[in-house]
């Protein structure tokens, strides 16, 4: 078996080759997505989005009723939805819009109940299609975080089968282009870190989804302050908690490469160092660092680095960046790490990438870098 150092060196060679290919060709087709959090509307309205960097933007989030599983849209939300789709359709270039259902703050129980019977699934599906058409969305994204057991996974497969049938039926009846169906999923095809071991129903995802958004981030953070870590490490020689492992697991399970989308974070995670002089990845920590509960957008990170004269370090082993100022430590992605991740995604022949979340960029630096490097796989 190759040593960790050999693995990193080999991976680096692959990345350099992919990047050289990217720089030798103009940007081409592929999914270049970004999630738009609805709570950012007052400070970052949809009109603020530079659509030249994206092909698809997801409105996050809508949640069905807890008992009927229908979407109940109040007047304020209705105005936001119409504003979102009309604004992004009128932009040049225009982008496709989807609304995302659920989110990390929602929890899995509601979706487990919804997916458990044919009747509740159908109610949810029909309501989602009605919302998409009423507010002029191009599709629907399911962000169920996360199915908790084998039965949930089985019901997810049935839900997607049923959803695709209804989308096709509605398209045939109305003579309109079929709605897109996508899903945001765990970075790995199976859940091996906590809870019951379970795996996504890959055949159903392959058959029914237009593409699959892999959330390749939140590997390390405030839930473990004992040591710093790369929140979205491309590689990790000490564990399977990395994007490269997650992608390999999906591909090994039979996921169609051209349906896989690599998720990229426009935010970092922060720690308070035990010793400011010991600050590498894995350095001892004693709590969360600056930001909102140990989280800072890329925009905030750059501002913090400048104001605090922070030391910025690029870590080739994990393909990530961290900065340190005093006992404050921030792990994040910058243009260097994103460039290499885009190269890796293309070397793996993926469909594209997406960002969480669009308002976190600074002067479109990372979004621009990603778009410029993306070429046809």
UniProtKB/TrEMBL annotation:
Tagged with keyword Signal: yes
Name of the protein: Acidic mammalian chitinase
One Pfam family recorded for the sequence: Glyco_hydro_18
Ranges for domain GH18: 30-377
Signal peptide: 1-24
Gene3D superfamilies hit by this protein: 3.10.50.10, Glycosidases
A GO cellular-component term linked to this record: extracellular region
PANTHER family: CHITINASE, NOD FACTOR HYDROLASE PROTEIN 1
Family statement: Belongs to the glycosyl hydrolase 18 family. Chitinase class V subfamily.
Keyword Acetylation applies: no
InterPro entries for this protein: Chitinase_II/V-like_cat, Chitinase_insertion_sf, GH, Glyco_hydro18_cat, Glyco_hydro_18_chit_AS, Glycosyl_Hydrlase_18
UniProt cross-references to PROSITE patterns, sorted A to Z: GH18_1, GH18_2, PROKAR_LIPOPROTEIN
Listed GO MF terms: chitin binding; chitinase activity
Keywords: Glycoprotein, Glycosidase, Hydrolase, Signal
A Gene Ontology biological process term: chitin catabolic process
SUPFAM superfamilies in the cross-refs: (Trans)glycosidases (SSF51445), Chitinase insertion domain (SSF54556)
């Amino acid at each position: 078996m190759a040593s960790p150092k050999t693995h990193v060196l080999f991976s680096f060679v692959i990345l350099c080759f992919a990047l050289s290919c990217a720089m030798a060709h103009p940007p081409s087709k592929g999914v270049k997505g970004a999630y738009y959090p609805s709570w950012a509307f007052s400070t970052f309205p949809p009109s603020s989005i530079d659509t030249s960097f994206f092909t698809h933007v997801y409105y996050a989030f809508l949640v069905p009723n807890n008992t009927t599983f229908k979407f109940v849209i109040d007047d304020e939300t209705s105005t936001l939805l119409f504003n979102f789709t009309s604004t992004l359709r009128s932009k040049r270039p225009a982008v496709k819009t989807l609304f995302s259902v659920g989110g990390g703050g929602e929890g899995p129980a509601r979706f487990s109940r919804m997916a458990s019977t044919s009747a509740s699934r159908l109610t949810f599906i029909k309501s989602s299609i009605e919302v998409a058409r009423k507010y002029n969305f191009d599709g629907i994204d399911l962000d169920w975080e996360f199915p908790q057991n084998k039965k949930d996974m089985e019901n997810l497969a049935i839900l997607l089968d049923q959803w695709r049938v209804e989308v096709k039926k509605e398209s045939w009846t109305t003579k309109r282009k079929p709605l897109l169906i996508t899903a945001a999923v765990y970075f790995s095809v199976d859940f091996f870190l906590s809870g019951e071991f379970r795996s996504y129903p890959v055949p159903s995802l392959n058959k029914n989804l237009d593409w699959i958004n892999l959330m390749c981030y939140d590997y390390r953070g405030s839930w473990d302050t004992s040591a710093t870590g790369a929140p979205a490490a491309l590689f990790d020689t000490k564990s399977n908690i990395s994007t490269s492992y997650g992608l390999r697991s999906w591909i090994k399970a039979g996921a169609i490469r051209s349906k896989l989308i690599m998720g990229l974070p426009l935010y970092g995670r922060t720690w308070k160092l035990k010793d400011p002089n010991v600050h590498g990845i894995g350095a001892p920590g004693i709590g969360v660092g600056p930001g909102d509960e140990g989280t800072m957008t890329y925009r905030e990170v750059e501002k913090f680095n400048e104001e605090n004269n922070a030391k910025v370090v690029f870590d080739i082993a994990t393909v990530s960046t961290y900065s340190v100022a005093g006992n404050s430590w921030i792990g994040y992605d910058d243009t260097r790490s994103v460039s290499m991740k885009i190269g890796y995604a293309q070397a793996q022949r993926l469909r594209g990438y997406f960002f969480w979340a669009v308002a976190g960029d600074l002067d479109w630096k990372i979004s621009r870098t990603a778009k410029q490097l993306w070429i046809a796989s």
